């Protein structure tokens, strides 16, 4: 859940700045900026913690390191595309599908007790999945839908 603080702090700071500099709160910009910073941050983590990320991927999938790097690039690209209103809705839809699919990798990593940061099997296991990750995934999906699809359509 600590990762969600990235979104919250960025969102609140951005709201303050938009109020000061533009005279109004820009919720769409601020919400997407928060998500963008989060996605870029997690995308970069694919290059720092690649061994742990590879352990998360189900055994039946080949080319694990390629998938780690590829999904990292996708997350960074999605974070960038959220800034462009033309691409925002499509990017949000992609991210919602992506977050649902990534959850299956989280289930797999929890079952195997993967420690993402150490790249070994000393992780917290299923307790983390139900206490933190599932809640975080639901919040991320709701945030993506609200700021990337719902609010811009209003």
Question: Any overview of this molecule?
Answer:
The protein is mainly alpha-helical and 154 residues long. The protein has one domain (4-153). The protein has 6 helices and no strands. Helix 1 packs antiparallel against helix 2 (27-48).
Summarize the structure.
By secondary structure, the chain is mainly alpha-helical. It is 79% helix and 0% strand. The longest helix is centred in the C-terminal third of the chain and has 28 residues, at 126-153.
Hey, roughly how much beta strand do the residues contain? under 5%
What profile does the largest beta sheet have?
none
* Count of all domains: 1
Question: What string gives the helices and strands in order?
Answer: HHHHHH
Mean pLDDT score: 95
Which regions contain 5 or more consecutive residues with pLDDT less than 50? none
The chain-level structural class is mainly alpha
Overall morphology = elongated
Mind telling me the C-alpha Rg? 16 Å
Please bin the fraction of helical residues.
over 70%
Extended strand count: 0
